[in-house]
Amino acid sequence: MEYELIKRLSQYKKILIKLRSMGFVKIFSDNLSDALGISASLVRKDFAATGLTGKRRGGYQVNELIAKLNDLLGKNGEQHIIIVGCGKLGSALINYKGFENEQIRIVAGFDANPERQTPDAPIPIFAPDRLESYIREQRIQVAILTVPEESSLQTMERLQSYGIRGILNFAPVLMRSSEHCNVENVNLALEVEKLFYFVNAQQSS
Amino acid sequence: MEYELIKRLSQYKKILIKLRSMGFVKIFSDNLSDALGISASLVRKDFAATGLTGKRRGGYQVNELIAKLNDLLGKNGEQHIIIVGCGKLGSALINYKGFENEQIRIVAGFDANPERQTPDAPIPIFAPDRLESYIREQRIQVAILTVPEESSLQTMERLQSYGIRGILNFAPVLMRSSEHCNVENVNLALEVEKLFYFVNAQQSS
Ligand SMILES: NC(=O)c1ccc[n+]([C@@H]2O[C@H](COP(=O)([O-])OP(=O)(O)OC[C@H]3O[C@@H](n4cnc5c(N)ncnc54)[C@H](O)[C@@H]3O)[C@@H](O)[C@H]2O)c1
Ligand SMILES: NC(=O)c1ccc[n+]([C@@H]2O[C@H](COP(=O)([O-])OP(=O)(O)OC[C@H]3O[C@@H](n4cnc5c(N)ncnc54)[C@H](O)[C@@H]3O)[C@@H](O)[C@H]2O)c1
């Protein structure tokens, strides 16, 4: 498969995962073409070329597409990630079983507070001065950032300088992606706000 | 304003908030019409009727639209919510300053473990047997659910029976909305998976 097609397939999957989490069950090529800013006929061509079928009139089933894209893209084994900041939120994420379902494993944590450093635990928590050697030796690409606001920008910069290519940022500071590092900002308050709209819209209907 | 228009405006805002968290800066009426399953001309008519302007050729600015929709829908004061399960994740959410920016306030927590119950704290944490009276007396509409998997379904059912109309569920159990209660399932593993797609797509381009 040529690069551009692989890239589009991975983008289709990304959007489908997002839409699945928004409750979408069916989708049309126009939806994907809009979300990716490409033509609907290219979407249909890609799907035909890779055997992704749908009932044209009824669209495509989101779950079926994701499963097929998983096969095509070869959901390559387990993805190892690290977490920086192992306080309340960090520890809740370290213990979360949901990562296993998506073949993601937190392999190590890092925390500035000596009381939280447990290098011999099943998921070791190291001091931040181990970050650089650990990221380079273990070829870690993605980190979750759950440090307090005041140390978040500095920690992000350090991670990028060590070669990290993706950061899931929870600190209440909007961080921008750079050329070599993709930053996603999570704000759970927006999830609650979204919920209020459902609740309010339901009440007024 | 008639009901249907208010409902659509609130849905536009909901989608826009979601798209903003995905990084969208600009949007076209076709995107909104697709997401809501309505015609693009109805979107444009709604916007014209409520004075939401955009440069037709360049689309609409997402942040501007959200601010205007906030005014139109009268972002009614502070929304009070409760949180059930005040362990690691629950306490991280109780202390999170990001809720203030969205005018959301966690006013009370509930936890089955007597050691976590602090009824005299600034944000009191009560025993679960206080849930019913608290929800009814304080007219609470939305709850965050951060209990372990094994007690999640039962707790959800209790919340619904007490009249809760929206639940943000973190337990690793996919919960369905009912007629009177809207459930949103959060899975942070999907956010990490999404990040890997960006990172992988970037590397292969
Ligand atoms: N985005 C969201 O929806 C959301 C929700 C809850 C909390 N948060 C944010 O997540 C962050 C963590 O929240 P929390 O409740 O777990 O806080 P916490 O204080 O319990 O944990 C923070 C941890 O980071 C460690 N730390 C501080 N500086 C560090 C550094 N330079 N390197 C490594 N570790 C460092 C501390 O020792 C502590 O253990 C905060 O920024 C908070 O605002 C975001
Ligand atoms: N969706 C996600 O991305 C995500 C991420 C992390 C954790 N989680 C989930 O969030 C939940 C909480 O995780 P945690 O790390 O905070 O666990 P935790 O064990 O630290 O906290 C759970 C709390 O719930 C309380 N509890 C148990 N049964 C209860 C009941 N019936 N009513 C009220 N309180 C009750 C416990 O006393 C405890 O304090 C778990 O289900 C976990 O799987 C989800």
CATH architecture of the largest domain in chain A: 3-Layer(aba) Sandwich
Structural class of chain A: alpha/beta
Strand tally of chain A is 8
The general outline of chain A is globular
Largest interface: A-B, 65 and 66 residues
Helix percent band of chain A? 40-55%
Could you explain how this protein is built, in words?
Two copies of one chain form a homodimer. With 205 residues, chain A is α/β, with parallel strands linked by helices. Chain A folds into two domains: 3-72, Orthogonal Bundle (Arc Repressor Mutant, subunit A); 79-189, NAD(P)-binding Rossmann-like Domain (Rossmann fold, 3-Layer(aba) Sandwich), CATH 3.40.50.720. Chain A is built from nine helices and eight strands. The first copy, chain A, has helices spanning 3-21, 29-36, 40-49, 62-72, 88-94, 98-101, 131-138, 149-161, 188-203, and strands at residues 26-27, 60-61, 79-84, 104-110, 125-126, 142-145, 166-169, 182-185. In chain A, the strands form two sheets. In chain A, strands 5-4-3-6-7-8 form a six-stranded parallel beta sheet. In chain A, strands 1-2 form a two-stranded antiparallel sheet. In chain A, helix 1 runs antiparallel to helix 4 (62-72) and helix 2 (29-36) crosses helix 3 (40-49). The model of chain A has no long low-confidence stretch (mean pLDDT 87). Chains A and B meet through helix 1, helix 2, helix 5, helix 6 and strand 7 of A and helix 1, helix 2, helix 5, helix 6 and strand 7 of B. One nicotinamide-adenine-dinucleotide sits between chains A (84-90, 110-113, 116, 128, 146-149, 151, 155, 170-172, 186-188) and B (92-93, 95-98). One nicotinamide-adenine-dinucleotide sits between chains B (84-90, 110-113, 116, 128, 146-149, 151, 155, 170-172, 186-188) and A (92-93, 95-98).
